Write a sequence for this structure.
């Protein structure tokens, strides 16, 4: 069954028809062409599919697109503004906080949500907030340093 939904995606009002069983990640990637968020585990464990829904991190693989009706969605493509990378993106590059990059969009969005909530988190708070994001390349130390730099620590 199809349903029309209206939401804001990266600041742009968007209306789209979706299947009621479709997940938000699938709609964002396949219908809107925003392929930054990645599919991996599909069971809300790894964080590669992270999107911000009304400013909070969600697993796009496990949220029905119809439940995003009326919401504000941010994908990694919406992080840079006017051709200027977000400070977290700059810091990830500076500290080499990625190898294959598969996990990076999820880490960036989760870190953004954390810093929006708590601009100066402790190391413990960063680790705890990012506990649902996995990096199979093992860049955890570099990711931590990058986020700490933006957090001013
Ligand atoms: S693909 Fe969604 S949490 Fe792993
Ligand atoms: S950089 Fe490869 S999974 Fe994180």
């Amino acid at each position: 069954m199809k349903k029309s939904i209206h939401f804001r995606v990266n600041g742009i009002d968007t209306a789209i028809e979706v299947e009621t069983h479709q997940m938000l990640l699938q709609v964002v990637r396949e219908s809107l062409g925003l392929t930054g968020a990645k599919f991996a585990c599909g069971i809300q464990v790894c964080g590669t599919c992270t999107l911000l829904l009304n400013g909070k991190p969600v697993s796009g693989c496990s949220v029905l697109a119809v439940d995003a009706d009326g919401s504000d969605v941010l994908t990694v493509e919406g992080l840079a503004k006017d051709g200027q990378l977000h400070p977290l993106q700059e810091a990830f590059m500076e500290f080499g906080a990625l190898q294959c990059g598969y996990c990076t969009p999820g880490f960036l969005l989760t870190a953004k949500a954390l810093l929006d909530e708590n601009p100066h988190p402790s190391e413990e708070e960063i680790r705890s907030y990012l506990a649902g994001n996995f990096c199979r390349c093992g860049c955890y130390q570099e990711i931590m340093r990058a986020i700490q730099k933006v957090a001013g620590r």
Q: What stands out?
A: Residues 98-103, 135-137, 139 surround FE2/S2 (inorganic) cluster (ligand 2) (CB under 6 Å). The chain has five helices and five strands. Residues 2-78 form a domain with the Ubiquitin-like (UB roll) fold (CATH 3.10.20.30). The chain has a mean pLDDT of 97.
